Amino acid sequence: MRIAQIAPICLSLPPVSYGGAELIISSLTENLVKRGHEVTLYASGDSNTGARLKSLFKKALGFGKDSPEYCIANANFAFQDADLFDVIHSHIGFYGLPFSKYAKLPVVTTLHNDIANNNDTYVEYYKDACTFVAVSQNQCERMRGFKVDDYIHNGIDVNRFKFQDNKKDYLLFIGNISKNKGADTAIKAAIRLKRKLILVGKIEQSHQLFFDQEIEPFIDNKQIIFEPLADHSRKQSLYSNAACLLFPIDWEEPFGLIMLEALACGTPVVAFNRGSIPEIIVNGKIGFVVDSFEEFLKAIMAVNDLDPMDCRKHVEEFFSVEKMTDQYEQLYKQLIQSNS
Fold first, then answer.
1. What pTM did the predictor assign?
2. Over the stretch 140-157, which tens digit does the pLDDT of each residue have?
3. CATH number listed for the domain at residues 2-155+320-339
4. Where are the beta strands (DSSP E) in the chain?
5. 90: which residues sit within 8 A by CB, 6+ positions away?
6. Which residues pair with 133 in a beta bridge?
7. Largest CB tally within 10 Å, which of 118, 123, 181, 318?
């Protein structure tokens, strides 16, 4: 198959540290190339790929600089080559919809994040602009306005993560330092339980006040330790040695890739029952899914009863990059056959 993959332009592929969607796009692209498909990746020019790379922007623009006009220009740059492909796979949310609506070939749009738009006219106009794919069943059900009929779970290359069953005693939080990700809840839990907590994350400008008021006062670099974004090697070490990963989200998380990364290292996850969590975590076997802060505390104290190998096997069986690629490959074939 001749496949176009359209990536966001804020980060190069694969991402160095932060960038869950970008990591998925890169992994999917490289696996499709390995399977013999002719893949063209539309991404920043500083990306590294085995596919044919086409770039309107020579370098990744960085967070906060991928303004709508740049994103639309990048979408236009890709769709002008539509006649060269059998299918286009867009990973850029609503920016590709004005072009996919009038494309003659099948277009897939994966909703790595929810398309938030309260304008009924907008939703009605673009609801069937392409084939929408959610990354979880929960997200699929919440995005029905766009005729999201199916979901494909994200998958990771499990071999990139070293399994370890001998854990240390610290708790780990990795993610955006924001209210909806629950960094403050992780700190409160660590203080209540008198446990060491390592916080690793990105602070966006819009969340700086939250960090200044709710996070920084508790950082003492002894019990509560904060680190900026970590590269793969550092995250690997943190995941492998942690007693558990804390995921106390306060929003409908579409997926949550770091849970897979931690589990692949044999590290259980303790998470609040929101969004995709029940689809990923088998409660009481590879982690705990909780509904309250008190349950959160009890779950953290119980993680030593879980088998790290169960965590690893769960990802290998249900969330591998190979399984994800199989599902997208099958979807492409079905759409191409229907279109012809």
1. 0.95
2. 998 877 888 799 999 999
3. 3.40.50.2000
4. 2-6, 38-42, 52-54, 87-90, 107-111, 131-134, 150-151, 171-174, 197-200, 224-227, 244-247, 269-272, 287-290
5. 6, 75, 78, 96, 100, 107, 108, 109, 110, 130
6. 110, 150
7. 181
